[in-house]
Amino acid sequence: MKKTSLSIGKKAFPSVSIIMPVNKKNPHFNDDEKKLRSLLKQTEETLLKDFPSKNTKILIDDMYNLAEKIDYRNLSDGLGLYISPYRENVFHFPFPVKEKVIIDRSFEMRDLILAAKNNFNYAILTISEKNVRILKGFNHALTEEKNDEMPFNIDDVGGKGHSRTGSFTSFSSTKNVTDQKAYGENKIAQFLLEIDRVISADKFLQNIPIAVFAPTRIIGHFKSITKNKKHILGYVQGNFDRSNAKELYAKVSKLIENNQLEIQNSSLKKLEDAINKKKAVSGIRDVWKAAFNKSGRLLLVEKDFFCSAKTVGRDGELVMDNLDKNDIHYIQDAVDDVIELVMKFGGDVVFIENGKLEDHNRIAMITHF
Fold first, then answer.
1. Phi/psi zone of residue 267: left (φ > 0), alpha (ψ -120 to 50 degrees), beta?
2. How many whole angstroms separate alpha carbon 36 and alpha carbon 68?
3. pLDDT per residue as tens digits for the range 2-22
4. What is the C-alpha to C-alpha distance for residues 6 and 35, in angstroms, rounded to an integer?
């Protein structure tokens, strides 16, 4: 039985990666099925032409059998099929992808790594004086959770969430409250301090990005008292007591997108600093060489940069001229191989929007040396 894990750096020839965009609107799922069948036929013809063997025919059968398991009525934004003599899997991408068929010595990992980086656990905390909600999120999926320690509303601080009929005892029993405004501010402060304490004590919440949804006044107070600033994903103003998961995700997705852009901008600044210290290389040839020397610390690559190449000589120098697909040293996508190498040897990769690495020939790397 074949393995379903698609590990970085695992070589098996031929490894087939079929990736295609999806039109999720009914009844267009029929078009998706036709499109995939066309790509399967195209892949079959290429395999039989370029790699004719008994094992290739078995691989083709496995490819069609894997495709039969796909539910075309429940697809994400992109679809990937991965088949080799030892491994196979179907992957649903939560973002648009470009159509491609790659037959190489390993699977095309770029989209899988990009998916892993774009998908992470997060939480949404909606706060109003009348209600506090916690929603755990992963990509589009949001699940409302209960935490008995979390105050239910502003009058539940005394009960610490255990009793929904508890009252705010810390100030409501004060005999000489003359300044109602000060009393209200103190009440909100204690309410938010308790929420922040629960965040710090919760094993899940203390380790993930949190988006805080609340009215402007509450956000201002929370920003001034929270001890969890380092993993606040962002703030959204408004009252969300009755908002459903779809409405909440529409808001949080913008925060996630902004977070990704901040990571890109921070990485570009690190690259600039590394270049000034002569600790960076640019262009596919020099990046390739550094990656093979295990010198890659942080790879920056434009999302759609694709480069066919071949290796020559003892040192495996990368060249892009006079390519022959039947050459044993031919590489259909050298960029993907670089990504795998950097990740395999402990480095990291950041995908940059197209055009932002133009001065570096679309790819650059901060090195260890």
1. alpha
2. 11
3. 777 676 767 788 899 999 999
4. 24
